[in-house]
């Protein structure tokens, strides 16, 4: 592999903070007349380190690959993260992986990034190791939006609070869920609001806080349409804790069962709530629909 300037991280979400880091990476590579390289992992390190850890990811691996491919870097290296990688100290990782295997000449470290077994070392240690290995180590500057650094954990907290509008602001794109349309109990159809029920969402993908959302949606015909999505347990009709993701697609009546379906979150309208009657629910759904239709 050709010598390069590299950065390393999990890059969950490939959000604006990551884009800012990658822009710095490309500038450092251009200044040195070297290639630019992103090094990331195929699974969340904590999932390997803690077998019972259930990640709440912003991207699937395929989504992450697609987003990273659009950044314009020369190389995207995806390392299979397993116990052998997890056991490496920061020095051993820099020596065996970065230097010998990937031919890294300079390493740009994200402001909050730590790597190596148990994350025992920090930036000053990486600089010291780099001098020994002939790898120049520099610290990247964070992207500050609304007074705080943009990070994956910050995006997750916003989505978990249902604040998809501000989460999208930090991501630089609309947060997405994908799945296969499955048969439900057809309650929406009896109310005059037929829904596409999303089957199992990709494992580990974060589902935003329950409630009613305005979304954009795409079916197999690849046409972007407006929709209204409910995430929750449908308390007006049921008392169980099963969470469903159901979307009423405006001006659309095609049969799309067993087909792939994607929703892009635009804004949250309200909490899910239990209504005293079916008629009261229908009345509220018409109000929700008006809001989504005004997108």
Descriptive key words:
single chain, 13 strands, alpha/beta, 295 residues, 10 helices, six-stranded antiparallel beta barrel, five-stranded parallel β-sheet
Report what the structure shows.
- This protein is α/β, with parallel strands linked by helices and 295 residues long.
- It has ten helices and 13 strands.
- The model has no long low-confidence stretch (mean pLDDT 91).
Secondary structure layout plus pairing:
Elements: E1 4-8, H1 16-32, E2 35-41, H2 45-49, H3 61-69, E3 75-79, H4 83-86, H5 90-101, E4 104-109, H6 123-133, E5 136-139, E6 144-145, E7 148-149, H7 152-160, H8 164-171, E8 176-182, H9 187-191, E9 196-198, E10 211-218, E11 224-232, E12 244-249, E13 260-270, H10 278-293
Parallel strand pairs: 1-2, 1-4, 2-3, 4-5
Antiparallel strand pairs: 6-7, 8-9, 8-13, 9-12, 10-11, 10-13, 11-12
Helix pairs in contact: 5-6, 7-8
Helicity, as a percent range:
25-40%
Oligomer: single chain
Instruction: Report the total helices.
Output: 10
Which structural class fits the helix and strand makeup? alpha/beta
Specify the overall morphology: elongated
Q: Report how far apart the termini are.
A: 48 Å
- Could you spell the SSE succession in H and E letters? EHEHHEHHEHEEEHHEHEEEEEH
Placed side by side, the strands forming the largest sheet appear as 8-9-12-11-10-13
Largest sheet, in brief, is: 6 strands, antiparallel, barrel
Approximately what portion of the residues adopt beta-strand conformation?
25-35%
Number of strands: 13
Rg for CA atoms: 22 Å
pLDDT < 50 stretches: none
Average pLDDT metric: 91
């Amino acid at each position: 592999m050709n010598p390069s300037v590299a950065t390393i991280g999990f890059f969950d979400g490939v959000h604006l903070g990551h884009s800012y880091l990658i822009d710095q990476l490309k500038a450092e590579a251009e200044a040195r007349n070297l290639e630019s390289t992103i090094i990331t992992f195929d699974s969340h390190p904590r999932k390997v380190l803690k077998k019972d850890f259930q990640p709440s990811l912003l991207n699937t691996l395929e989504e992450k690959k697609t987003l990273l491919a659009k950044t314009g870097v020369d190389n995207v290296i995806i390392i299979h993260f397993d116990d052998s990688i997890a056991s490496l100290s920061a020095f051993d990782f820099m020596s065996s992986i970065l230097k010998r295997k990937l031919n890294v000449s300079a390493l740009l470290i994200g402001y909050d990034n730590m790597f190596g077994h148990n994350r025992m070392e920090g930036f000053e240690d990486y600089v010291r190791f780099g001098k020994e290995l002939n790898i120049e180590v520099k610290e990247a500057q964070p992207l500050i939006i609304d007074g705080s650094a943009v990070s994956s954990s910050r995006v997750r907290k916003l989505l978990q609070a249902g604040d998809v509008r501000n989460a999208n602001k930090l991501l630089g794109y609309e947060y997405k869920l994908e799945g296969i349309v499955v048969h439900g109990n057809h309650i929406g159809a009896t109310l005059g609001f037929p829904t596409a029920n999303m089957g199992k969402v990709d494992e580990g993908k974060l589902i935003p806080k329950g409630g009613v959302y305005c979304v954009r949606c795409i079916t197999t015909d690849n046409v972007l349409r407006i929709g209204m999505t409910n995430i929750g347990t449908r308390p007006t009709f049921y008392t169980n804790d099963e969470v469903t993701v159901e979307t009423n697609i405006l001006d659309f009546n095609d049969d799309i069962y067993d087909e792939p379906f994607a929703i892009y979150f635009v804004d949250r309208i309200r909490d899910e709530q239990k209504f005293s009657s079916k008629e009261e629910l229908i009345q509220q759904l018409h109000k929700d629909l008006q809001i989504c239709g005004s997108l």
